[in-house]
């Protein structure tokens, strides 16, 4: 099928490809190490954000209500007014959540 010369050429080509592959593998490992070293602050920031997420989910809406109330200078005058605001907040939340879920959904392939 193959002559000895053809087999020798194929073996030589295989050895060259193996050497190139090893060289590229080492270069990738070196690049990954330098990239990871320069992006350590990003991992730390993501870690803090993940730890603070439950707290932010509670604090953000409360802070928003507080800022709006301070900006408009109004105080809830009766419990029914407070419930109206809670209902409005729930409606806004539901709409925002549905938009968020549509945004996160994968596009059809």
Would you summarize the structure shown here?
The protein is mainly α and 109 residues long.
SSE string: HHH
User: How many strand elements?
Assistant: 0
Radius of gyration, CA atoms, in whole angstroms: 30 Å
Structural class: mainly alpha
For the biggest sheet, the summary is: none
The geometry reads as elongated
Distance between the termini: 46 Å
Mean pLDDT: 82
Give the count of helical stretches.
3
User: Roughly how much helix do the residues carry, as a percent range?
Assistant: over 70%
The low-confidence runs, each spanning 5 or more residues with pLDDT under 50, are: none
Percentage of β-strand residues:
under 5%
How would you describe the overall organization of this protein?
- The chain is mainly α and 109 residues long.
- Among the domains are: 38 residues; 34 residues.
- Helix content is 86%, strand content 0%.
- It is built from three helices and no strands.
- The mean pLDDT is 82.
Topology:
Blueprint: H1 4-38, H2 40-72, H3 79-104
Keywords:
single chain; 109 residues; mainly alpha; 3 helices; 86% helix; elongated
